[in-house]
Amino acid sequence: MNPAPAAPPKRCDLVVVGAGPAGTAAAITAARAGLNTVLLDKAVFPRDKTCGDGLTPRAVRALERLGVPTTGMHPVRGLRIRVSQPEYDGRSRPAAMMKYGVRGADFNDGYSGRTYLFPWPELKELPNRAYTLRRRELDALLLAHARAAGAEVLLHTAVTAPLLDSGRIVGVTTATGANIRAAAVIAADGAGSRLALAAGLPRRMERIRGVAHRTYFQSPLAADDYLELHLGLNDATGHQMPGYGWLFPLGDGTVNVGVGMLSTAPTFRSTDYRQLLTDWTAGLPPQWGLSAEHRISPISGALLPMTLDRPVTYRQGLLLVGDAAGLVNPGNGEGVDYALESGVMAADAVIAAARAGFGTLSAEQELFNYVLRLRAEFGGHQRLGIIFAHLIANPRIMQACLRLGLPNSTIMHLVNKLLGNLYDHSGGDWADKLLTWLERAVPSA
Questions:
Q1: Spatial contact of 327 and 335, defined as CB atoms under 8 Å apart
Q2: CA-to-CA dists, residue 229 to 38, 124, 152, angstroms
């Protein structure tokens, strides 16, 4: 039985709608700075959320900056890429492939394709640590830290509309009819953000989107220490599909298994993703334990809004963060790190506005600075992701990447950093410098 919602306060400094990683990061940051912060969510926690459950080095840095411990999370050392059909002819150069810690391998685990390992890069700006943790547990952990920071948390409290005053958003209205007034509102209410729509902040529908479906298996792969990505998925007829699959070990006897596809793929709208996931896992080695009898949860799906597809992320008192702002990485489908980072950025803007004096022109400029900071931090990489996604949508280019790119350590050193947004923006090696230059060179779309 769901508990009755608590009576909300009538007035506060900041209302955050949505208690996922973006919302809780914002609430933690604002509450610690002394702002009277209210965090709302329509769900009752802990609750499940469709996600890959991976926390890459960017997410780890964000958690550490928030003071959220990674104790008890399952450590992973890097990325393993598998290609279902051996596109490479075997004439490798072992010394060159080891230059950046990359090696081609045929593991004795029943897999018939090619396998490549990519440990996390050594960087100045990011740790080389990563973990996996179910979103059910991660979100509950972040919510506990929001409470401990002093935020007032109201669960089972749905927000139905923004509260308006002369066109400015000055709070929210809940499903019970209560009005919560605030100097600023942060929308962390996900890909379909009702607050953004109600405020007239549409998406750019021509931008790249993704779809992902996932489930859980009890599997001996659960103790693995690499995130695994599969390219060249086969459906039940053996036809190779343009999407990708993942196997993320959770260290608790289970594995998060899913498939994804970008909207640049010609089969994006026509694919039955649940069936693709079922067919793909059925064709994997039986000793991996990914047959139907080992599946322990339903298959669930989610839309992945990418490439900053909201042209406006702040307007008249409302700031958009995480999925609501379209911050999923088009290179690897990752969203948790950008949710955490954008949540902190938005809270920083509200804190600065409070110091300037809510309602002043200076405060309004501080709130708008969130847009500038978001674009400066993520805009260049998201534009590179758009170009990459359109290139690999071409079957000939994709096949060339599988045949020529994967076995080449120099190329993959660059691509691995690009896809994961794992590079230093000051100094670093040749790949870091090239990617940083490209971010600046690619014009805004």
A1: yes
A2: 39, 26, 39
